[in-house]
Amino acid sequence: MALNGRIDLRSDTVTQPCEGMKQAMLNAPLGDDVLGDDPTVQALEAKIADLLGKEDALFVPSGTMSNQIALWIQSKRGDAVALHNTAHIYVYEAGGPAVLSGLLLKPVGGENGFIDLDQLRGTFPPDDPHFAPVTLVCAEDTANKGGGTVYPLEQLDAIAQIAHDQGARTHLDGARLFNAVAASGISAARRAKHYDTVSICFSKGLGAPVGSALCLPKSLKKAAIRARKILGGGMRQSGMLAAAALYALEHNVERLVEDHARVQRLAQGLIDAGYDVRWPESNMVYFETNDPNQMIAKAKAVGIDVLSTGPTTIRAVIHKHIDDADIDRCIAFFAGINR
Ligand SMILES: Cc1ncc(COP(=O)(O)O)c(C=O)c1O
Fold first, then answer.
1. Which atom of ligand 1 is nearest to the CA of 61?
2. CA of 240 to the centre of ligand 1 (A)
3. Predicted confidence (pLDDT) per residue in 100-132, tens digit
4. Against a cut of 0.85, is the pTM above it?
5. 89 close to 173: Cβ distance less than 8 angstroms
6. Homologous superfamily assigned to 255-336
């Protein structure tokens, strides 16, 4: 219970930098990244691009900005973007695609947050001026609102294939792609192979305080830098933040399997206590209760924080500040209250 004395399961975004990460930030060689000469940012961009098997990458302040830049630079006003109807870009990015890029979002259904292939095929309109052409398809791996689910590789590949066959580009919201890697044993580069751009977040399970990267082809880098500038995301001595991300890649990727094992233990405890639980595939578990607000209040009173994600649904996310004893306490708490 290392986070301000609380078991904070609201999100993996609550993670805080450890001493080693702070030291790396303090000692990072710095420049001015807007002028293009921050060596630590350059090192991070090269490393994450390499890990993802892409030509280049751009360091940005947030996952939202990363996704929004990907949409902006790969479409034009009046185009349509197909994505899952629970996708972060659709549900939680404040209408950014309409505001920033003049895009029509076409939500597609499918089990567990995964885009259904037939529905995706059906979303491409005929070549007729009545319709907004679908020029970009976005998938999310892991799929957060789907339950932290890990795409079957064939489905991830097939989505990209369908998009490319239709002449559309592809973006992968990989905010938690390294959780999908940990769960599947399939490398990030392989999972993202058929996607033109990929967004990676360092400030979730990887434990950096700030930052995401948009991995992309070299040909899109200039446009991405300009979009970031317009959005106010050009940062100066951002090597301090990039150093945290580099540290996270070096120290906090392999350990994600520990979070996955702990969330499964929590899920089993909840099942044993009679809850209706969506079995976790990565680092989060969703379970049902009659009155989430009441449960959240009771949990808060004993030092446990969880989030409600629907009228009867609670989400608990496991991360590097949660240990085995915390899981025991959570199981005991949830088993002992009225649900
Ligand atoms: C799947 C997914 N994509 C993108 C984001 C956005 O990241 P940020 O909060 O850094 O803007 C999140 C944040 O939780 C997310 O879960």
1. 10
2. 21
3. 999 999 999 999 999 999 999 999 999 999 999
4. yes
5. yes
6. Aspartate Aminotransferase, domain 1 (3.90.1150.10)
